[in-house]
Amino acid sequence: xxRSAPRIDAQLIAAIExxxxxxxxxxxxxxQIGSQAxxxxxxxxxxxxxxxxxxxxxxxxxxxxxxxxxxxxxxxxGGMRGYSNTMDQLRLPREDRx
Length: 98
Known about the structure:
Elements: H1 10-19, H2 26-40, H3 47-60, H4 69-77, H5 83-91
Helix pairs in contact: 1-2, 2-3, 4-5
């Protein structure tokens, strides 16, 4: 049976940010993340999910002061932040986020 996951584990999100140097093709990042997920016993994320996170990571790479948008989304989805707090923080410049 094929499994799919609506949420991507935090360690895989961190691996996406670590692997993406801006030059590596997204398909290769997807293959490596899939291998890491399999090795860790996690559900393999979809290509589309990884592609969206890579594009988001690349867009936000220049701003490195407050929490990243990926971190805010992950915390919001995990219930660590309320929806309105997450959306308010995403609208702020990264250096003003907390």
